[in-house]
Amino acid sequence: MSRNSLRTHSMGNHASGSPFPGEPEFLAVGKLRRPHGLTGEIVMSVWTDFPERLTSGAKVFVGKDFRPLVIRSSRQFNQDLLVAFENVETREDVGLLRNYEVFVRTVDIPPLEEGAYYLHQLLGLRVVADKDDRHIGVIREILETGANLVFVVEPETGKDVLLPDIDSVVLRKDFDKGEIRVHLIPGLVPDEK
């Protein structure tokens, strides 16, 4: 399984042309931290498995208003990147971007090999109990724990259901059908024995 960021933002009804239900238009790939030096560079925490795509000439979107910016330069800086943007030349200018998230458009992310998927592609999938074809809900969020992922499933009514992404619970992920088949062990669904 390959993954990108879990921080996502949807801009309406599949404006990205995504084939997956609930897939966002933008994916967060990092967060701008603090200015570095005097020439407009800023430290960026990297949240993507593809930092090599954040190079000179790459178009990104910054902040909640998705301000489009073009990367002027980038270079490794410890575990982070130092990035500079076109038309953002001074320490003061780049300081205004401090603590903003950096996004790319979902349609611009690299394709994966057969059978691999991005975690954000699971958002919006229906969760169906394999035993009786009962609709449990829709994946609303994905949590990363130390041991495994946990899917936050939003039912039509009632409390969210937390399903661990382990082989004994998650049986099949079917992107063509837009669903995940699960085996419900006792105690996973509230008020169910």
CATH class of the largest domain: Mainly Beta
Beta-strand residue percentage: 35-45%
Task: Please report the distance between the alpha carbons of the first and last residues.
Answer: 32 Å
C-alpha-based Rg, rounded: 19 Å
> What is the fold-level CATH name, i.e. the topology of the largest domain?
Elongation Factor Tu (Ef-tu), domain 3
Summarize the biggest pleated sheet.
Answer: 6 strands, antiparallel, barrel
Approximate shape: elongated
- Determine the structural class based on helices, strands and strand pairing: mainly beta
The CATH architecture of the largest domain would be Beta Barrel
Number of domains: 2
The CATH homologous superfamily name of the largest domain equals RimM
User: Portion of residues in helices?
Assistant: under 10%
Give unreliable regions as ranges: 1-19
The averaged pLDDT comes out at 83
The H-and-E topology, N to C, reads as EEEEEEHEEEEEEE
Neighbour order of strands in the largest sheet: 2-3-6-5-4-7
Number of helices: 1
Total beta-strand segments: 13
Give the helices and strands, then pairings:
Elements: E1 8-9, E2 26-36, E3 41-46, E4 59-62, E5 67-77, E6 80-85, H1 91-95, E7 101-105, E8 126-129, E9 135-144, E10 149-154, E11 161-164, E12 170-174, E13 179-182
Parallel strand pairs: 8-13
Antiparallel strand pairs: 1-2, 2-3, 2-7, 3-6, 4-5, 4-7, 5-6, 8-9, 9-10, 10-11, 12-13
What does this structure look like?
By secondary structure, this protein is mostly beta strands. The chain folds into two domains: 8-108, RimM (Elongation Factor Tu (Ef-tu), domain 3, Beta Barrel); 124-182, PRC-barrel domain (SH3 type barrels, Roll). It is built from one helix and 13 strands, in the order E-E-E-E-E-E-H-E-E-E-E-E-E-E. The protein has one helix at 91-95, and strands at 8-9, 26-36, 41-46, 59-62, 67-77, 80-85, 101-105, 126-129, 135-144, 149-154, 161-164, 170-174, 179-182. The protein is elongated and about 60 Å long. The protein starts with 7 loop residues before the first strand and ends in an 11-residue tail after the last strand. The model is unreliable at 1-19 (pLDDT under 50).
